[in-house]
Amino acid sequence: MAGCNALPFVATGDVKQIFNLLDNLRVGYIEEGDTNCLITGESGSGKSELVKQYAAKYPRRELEEYTHIPVLYVQLSSPQTAKAFTQQVLAAMGDPQGGKGIKTKEEGFERIKTYCRICGVELIILDEIQTVIQNRSPGVIASITDWFKDLMNHSKVPVVLVGMPWCLDVVKENDQLDTRVGYRYYLETFRVSRQFSHFIKFIELFSKSYEFANGFSLSEPETAYRLFAYSSGIIRAIRGQIIRAANLAKSAGKPIDLACFLEAIRSRGIKDQNNVFIMPVTELRLREIVSSSRWTQQKSYNKESFQSAEFKTYRLTKKLELIEADDD
User: Fold this and answer.
1) Are 113 and 198 members of one domain?
2) In terms of domains, do 311 and 237 share one?
3) 208 CB contacts (<8 Å, ≥6 apart)?
4) What is the domain count for the chain?
5) How wide is the angle at C-alpha 149 spanned by C-alphas 146 and 150, nearest 5°?
6) Last residue of some domain: 187, 204, 227?
């Protein structure tokens, strides 16, 4: 049985394609000028885990004369100024002063350029870029997108931007940034109305290192539908529920069974009448994302410029036939 801290990573076809692109960008196989990439997906779609796994393949190494950083991963945290933005990048690089010694943004970008050359940086990953953009006025957003463009210009290495789907609309608003980001990937959540086999394949691969009780399988149709009803096809929720059930099974000293999933739902404070592993199958509501979150240009500061993803709801018949639900 996998340990309670085991976090399996499933490299789907999309993930493998992105890994291959990042490899090509990193080693210079792609030489055109727009060698930067944008990876988007809804919260919980697995985009951050994807780039963290990629960065882990090429860890920094402390050599005799310098620190080699082939892939620099930076998790952004709402920098309010261009100077603060460069400080976060410098801190991730391991700058002795954490970037605090710079006086201007220009000095920050220049130091980043120097470190990239000395440390052999081949790829920069900026994760959570929506934290830099959200709840800002159009004028400020325009200035912020210039920070990304400036980083690309100064670092002289490919930059991967990672964030929510509406970040694509923001990139498109800056012509100079738009033309520099030549590769764009959107990580879809799983759907129940089509290609449900992809969802089943994912849970099979993710859970293959765990021990399940005889006669219990996550890929069994009704069980798979129940797990989808809980997760709405969102990878973070799928992984979290399987890991929680596995931890409960390990604590009880037994293989994972249906009771573990039932208790995993209860442990989250959900009442039995709303527990998808107890409810009659005909009462399940399976929601899938049909339209991603998006950004709408506004004339002034407006939190509503970011519109949430839209869902469609389905239900099941006693024969496990999928039909559209009247309620949402």
Assistant:
1) no
2) yes
3) 8
4) 2
5) 85
6) 187
Please, which residues have CB within 8 angstroms of residue 107's CB and are 6 or more apart in sequence? none
How many CB atoms are located within 10 Å of the residue 17 CB? 12
Say if residues 80 and 143 touch (Cβ distance below 8 Å).
no
CA angle 315, 320, 324 (to 5 degrees): 25
For residue 114 the two structure tokens come to 């120097």
Domain that holds residue 267: 192-328
Q: Residue 120 and residue 155: Cα distance in Å, rounded?
A: 11
Has residue 3 been placed in a domain? no
Residues 37 and 128 in one domain: yes
In degrees, rounded to 5, the angle at the alpha carbon of residue 204 between the alpha carbons of residues 258 and 228 is 60
- The answer on 159 and 138 residing in a single domain is yes
List the CATH number of the domain containing 68: 3.40.50.300
Q: What is the distance between the alpha carbons of residues 52 and 69, in angstroms, rounded to a whole number?
A: 14
- Rounded to an integer, what distance in angstroms lies between the CA atom of residue 45 and that of residue 48? 8
Strand ranges (DSSP E) for 142-242? 159-163, 183-187
Does 22 reside within a domain? yes
Q: Examine the domain organization and report whether 180 and 198 are in the same domain.
A: no
Residue 5 lies in a domain: no
- Starting from the edge strand earliest in sequence, which strands make up the sheet with 310-316, in order? 286-291, 310-316, 322-324
The predicted structure's pLDDT at residue 327? 59
In the block, tokens 């059930």 appear at 245
Task: Please say which residue of 187, 217, 233 terminates a domain.
Answer: 187
Answer yes or no: are the C-beta atoms of 190 and 44 closer than 8 Å. Answer: no
Q: Confidence band (pLDDT; 50, 70, 90) for 221?
A: very high
309 φψ region: left (φ > 0), alpha (ψ -120 to 50), beta (else): beta
pLDDT (tens digit, 9 = 90+) per residue, 153-186? Answer: 999 999 999 999 999 988 998 999 999 999 999 9
Tokens representing residue 315 in the block: 């239900």
Q: How do residues 263-313 score in pLDDT, each as one tens digit?
A: 999 999 999 999 999 999 999 999 999 999 887 755 554 454 678 889 999
Please tell me the pTM assigned to this model: 0.90
